[in-house]
Amino acid sequence: MSSAPAKKEFLCILPDVPGAQAKRLEVRPSHLEGVRPLVVAGSVVAGGAMLESHPAEGETPSFKGSMMLVMAENEAEVRALLENDIYAHKGVWDLANAQIIPFKSAVRKEL
């Protein structure tokens, strides 16, 4: 009986396409809805928006991209997961300049 290949961690740095702020805000609810099952399945273990700077209270953040920590067998599996996201389909993420970096957590704390 063979076991499934081990999942590995990948740090994904996903810059936004310049000028994508309005599109990001428009499709964000669908993005979060699409990510939720990946979190439940353990494929996405961390993620969030990268900002130009922290906004003042009540101010809309100025986004520059996203970060995700993905568990997958290989980089191709990670790339497929990212390409399936609405941020990729709607032109928010600049996948041509995305970084998918093999990663190994030293510590991790639940939020």
Automatic annotation (TrEMBL):
Gene3D superfamilies: Dimeric alpha+beta barrel. Residues 10-103 form the YCII-related domain. This is YCII-related domain-containing protein. It comes from Penicillium daleae. It holds the Pfam family YCII.
